[in-house]
Amino acid sequence: MADLLANLSLGFGIALSPYTLLLAIIGCFIGTIVGALPGLGPANGVAIMIPITFSMGLDATGALILLTAIYYGAMYGGRISSILLNIPGDEPAMMTTLDGYPMAKAGRAGDALVISGFASFVGAFLATLGLAILAPALSRIAYEFGPAEYFALYLLAFCTLGGIASNNQAKAALASCLGIGIAMIGLDPNSGLPRMTGGNLHLYDGIDFLVAIVGLFAVSEVFFFIESKGKSGAAGIKLRGRVTVPWAEIWTTRWTMIRCSVVGFIAGVLPGAGASLGSFMTYMMEKSIAGEKGKFGTGVAKGIAAPEVGNNAAAGGALVPMLTLGVPGSGTTAVLLAVLVTLNITPGPTLFVERPDVVWSLIASLLIANFVLLAMNVPMVKVFVKVLEVPPAILMPGVTMVSFVGIYSLTGSYFDLLLVVLFGVLGYVLRKLDIPTVPVILGILLGSKMEKQLRDAMVLSDGDWTYLFSSTISSVLIVAAIVGFILPIFLRGRIRKPQRVSD
Amino acid sequence: MTRPSDRIFGLVVILAALAYIASALQVQASFLSDPVGPKAFPIAVGIVAILCAVTMIARPDAEPEWPALRSTLAIGIAIVVLVIYAYALKPLGFLIPTAVVAAILSYQISPSPKVSVLSGIGLSIGLFVLFRFVLGLSLFGFPRGWF
User: Interface pTM (ipTM) of the complex?
Assistant: First the structure.
């Protein structure tokens, strides 16, 4: 406990410097806008901003704070269009449409926005505290990890992502293979000889995951907008009059908020589950607790609070495995992991010992960011409602140009821009076929490491494959991976899941 | 053949995976090799991909809704324009290619010539000011030698 306070004071020392504070506020603002816009979610938002962040020359702490503030902000902002347009601003906000839109239709759009804003705050704040407590403890366990354990852990991440978070095991596994296969391109780390490059010199350094992320998440979205001609189809509800805070109603949801924070946080910590599943689980849980009398789906406060607490708590929880083990719990944390790797910071247990300034200033900034977001999303919510009026015909070309210039200013290579277009087309086809794109990113990000850990393990054991099962930790992880992949096939009939997971 | 999309995609994946495995077999192994070597992992990935693709062919999902011919054409135009943009950005500077490409993309989303031209010009100048002067990126506005 004393450790925690000492660490937090170190973190606040950095986070409260005017420059860092400014970055957090800018991040919150951009994040809420990104979240509010239908079609742009946390993963797209962070992906588009990464190259720009790098070319601005921010240091590791600054870049990470800016991008995680965007991440948190997008989780808050996603509810705005769920409530007003009945279109989720991003995937995790999908469940918020179920009660948020009916309440808005009943003339209480302001109340719905305020209740969900508070719920977001409670979920995100408790999850950030959970992160501060759980992450150091988990990082101590992670010290026990050798190559065999890390290989098993990566396997677990791919399997649970494919198992829990997708509708079709084969498609999710195929997406992982695609990503890992792309990661193999370039120089073999052990021998230094080129692999799978087809003799193309541009490919000797491998394919930068930023290029893949921007293509798969941002450019493919543009193609979807072109296909739908920017039509949203739903009638928007106007926000009229002053926004007041329905304190009494928020107070009735207190236990809902606490329960959902815990469940959402756990959903976030599990690799591969992420915020979409967090909000789904919390909504279903509260719905069954409330029963028929709860009138879920007709615009009740608990029905708005539950998924918003859930997705924001999961967003915080997903940072735990990303920081302590280097294995992201969701798509957006995979993107954040890419940031860390590019900044020459290796997430994992050593991060907490070697760079406590980065970790603790991040956690402190997130605690501050939550208050900033509460202020932006409750009293100032009208500002963001205006954003929904930007027509896609201006927005989407803007997003494309920002993505391209970001990549171009980072690499200065036309070849990488071509790859961005290629990944955009690939992302479009994959999403059309209901093949998830998050495992592709995870594969590109972790593929080389997974291979390296396997080969290191085999060097240690002199080629004996049973070495992978030699420790309890690795055996448990491998068994969990297999169960996590196969079990959902049998549960599929009973549990209906959100359709696609992209957070 | 019912539900052709998943099946065709599965077939493409199998062909690509076979090519990938073939390419992996060609990888030179250095004399300082570890027990696994540089070939085994890519080959294993290729094999898993083939298994997944076979499953997709055997048990395809419901057919996705593909866009109508006109939308497909619009997406095709967008792809071509973006490829040209990738080549044009360096020699032609930021402003002109960006204005043209943004206008074309805007037109593909909402076919109003006035809005497209205005958003092309607006985005081009607005983003240039943002990138160059606010964020301090080194971008060239015009082709070299104009000014």
Answer: 0.93
